[in-house]
Amino acid sequence: MLTLSGHEGSVRALAYSPDGQTLASGGVDRTVRLWDVAARRERATLRGHLLSVTGVAFAPDGTRVASLGIDRTVRLWDVASGAPAGEMPRQTTMLNALTFLPDGRTLATAAGLMTCVAASPDGTTVAAGCGYPMDFHRGIVKLWDLLSGDEWAVLELTDMGRWTAQYPREGGQFDLAGGSRLVALWEPTRRQRRPHLEHRGGISAVAFAPDGATLASACGSTIYLWDPIRGEKRATLKGHGREVTALAWAPDGATLLSGSGDRSVRLWDVAARRERRVYSWPVGKVFAVAVSPDGMTAAAAGDAPGVVVWDLDEG
Description:
Layout: E1 2-4, E2 11-16, E3 22-27, E4 31-36, E5 41-47, E6 53-58, E7 64-69, E8 74-78, E9 84-87, E10 95-100, E11 106-112, E12 114-119, E13 126-130, E14 138-145, E15 150-158, E16 163-166, E17 173-176, E18 182-187, E19 192-193, E20 197-198, E21 203-208, E22 215-219, E23 222-227, E24 232-238, E25 244-249, E26 255-260, E27 265-269, E28 274-279, E29 286-291, E30 297-302, E31 307-311
Antiparallel strand pairs: 1-31, 2-3, 3-4, 4-5, 6-7, 7-8, 8-9, 10-11, 11-14, 12-13, 13-18, 14-15, 15-16, 16-17, 18-19, 18-20, 21-22, 22-23, 23-24, 25-26, 26-27, 27-28, 29-30, 30-31
């Protein structure tokens, strides 16, 4: 186990680059830091956000990294130079999560009631989970075209439980009936919806398996595994003592990593539906977890300043 030190305060977000050579972290010190994984040292500190950074995501080609902040902005950075590479328009609602679609030119952002967002590996489906942040009465997921800077699709939820998918560039919309305690599955390019995944409370994290055939969601201290095509629940994973805050799949699709407010990171055997290992790293309450593209190492961060990196076969 190794601790990467540099952030001043808690670390809220982690992401590995597609080649596994760089780890990005975002923290309450308003910085994004790029770490050389092999050398175990900081490569660059990216400054520009006015408030805490709560989300980071690499483009599929690894040349850019996107960061999301409490200042309601999304910034793009050149990974090689660390220079700014663009900025999305400042939003009126608090931003909570972001992810690239596999095409590399589309970025999804979640705001307001929407606490998490994920894209399927083939890019056909977007999953958005609804939580209950205070003082928000609607949730929004936007898809941005990074070449033009325009939003081209919007999924919106009101506190009355009404969902609407809109396409500003072309006009038109459709409604998605359902309550607000759910994960919405949406095929934006085909203008289609899939069955919602009903939960008993707010959703804090969603993650597609590498083959896209399984979706993991976190609700309270429980993890659910779903068939995203049929909308059927496959399994329930229990073990955490407090809210599960982060999920990350290993590339083999057989292992799932979870982080929680109970200060633990847990490794799950998905096929056996059981906990394989529990890690108690010195990161405090866990806010973010990530697995390297080769599946050999993982990273975790929380309300302590450091980022912990370890070999997944480490006990």
